[in-house]
Amino acid sequence: MNSSDKYKVLLMIWMLQFVNYLDRINLSIAAPTMMKELSIRPALFGVVLAAFSLGYAVAQIPGGALADRFGAKILLIVSPILWSVFTGMTGFVASFIALAIVRVLFGAAEGLSNGASFKLIGDYFPSHERSAANGAYLSALALGPAFIAPVAVWFLTHVGWQGMFRWLALPGFVMALLIFFVIPRQSRDRAISREQAEAPAESGRFVNVTRMPTSWLIFIAYMAFNIAFWGYLGWMPSYLSLSRHIELKALGFAASMPYLAGTVGMFVFGWLGSKVLYRHRCVLIAAIYLCTAVCLYVTYNVATAQASIVGLSAAGFFLYGGFGPVWSVVLDLTPGNLRGAFSGFVNCGGQIGGFFAPIIVGWLVGVTGSFTGGFLFMIGALLAAALCFVALQVVKRDWPTRAGEAIAV
């Protein structure tokens, strides 16, 4: 394998994830305007936000399995073409039902790419580099929203939410072309073959992997984490607008700050997971989730809007920071020939949490008239996720090190 290939692959999937989140988060930025113009209550708009996760969850395991079977590249070309079509269609909806249906289809289209991207990281990067590689790749999860917040506000004020969705459909088509020309052909065959060849033959069956208690601990932990993540991601702009009374013109900058902090967290904890705490990644992840919970609690209880933005930014630093270590653990758990499918399995659990989070937070906001219940719900989910990773550390499942010996996570 050409050593430069892995950096080409990393750049391409980073750019794809960046565009992925541009198109995913624009709905959250437009939420206050769309709720008003389409007469959608917060509880129902929570269903709209959750509709994405429903489609995304359904596509996870099939998308990963297709990447294992036919190669990741083809999935990474088809997926952005499809999701861009549905992004553009969002600009033409005129009712709650139409919006929910389009978001389900949009989520399914984006879901096809996730397992394929993680498969490429597992194939091209050795175990001790994956936490940093995942952190770099997943920094797009934070940079995308940070970029789209002010851009979406500009579109909203100049061409309306309908025009925003139509214009933001274009980058996905560009990414499909770039991936076609840049990612090496038949990349699935250019894997780090030594790790795969040394894997026990019986581990290559997906059903055996899902029978491991460690697999379900990660599944449940990632589901709980995504309750907090999607509650945060889906409702933060509305919280700043409706509860902290930040005006639309200032909302773009205010909403981008937590994502910029999250970008820093991605690189910091990705580096820690690869270089400093490689042997204790589960402890690191649990600590990250606990710190996020504390930051969310502080955010809601401070007196001023400025202080709440600082609190949300600190929460974003930790919330996003856990992605790199988590996915390095997932990839180390998985036989090479099942990385796409198992990544889809774990992310399916995450999207189950992502499906219920916006609905429950929206319902709590509608019933109570405040965001108190929503914040407590997210904090409880983070505590549950931290407990799962503590349990995983206690189980002491062995991981290969860069020297080939066995260590605990």
Secondary structure: number of strands:
2
Mean pLDDT: 83
CATH homologous superfamily descriptor: MFS general substrate transporter like domains
The biggest sheet amounts to: 2 strands, antiparallel
- Percent in strands: under 5%
- Give the CATH architecture: Up-down Bundle
Q: What are the segments in which pLDDT stays under 50 over at least 5 consecutive residues?
A: 191-203, 398-408
Question: Which structural category fits the helices and strands?
Answer: mainly alpha
Share of helix, binned: over 70%
- Indicate the radius of gyration in whole angstroms: 20 Å
What is the overall shape? globular
Question: Which class in CATH terms?
Answer: Mainly Alpha
CATH T-level topology: Growth Hormone, Chain: A
Kindly report how far apart the N and C termini lie. 28 Å
Strand order of the largest sheet: 1-2
Count of discrete alpha- or pi-helical segments spanning 4 or more residues: 16
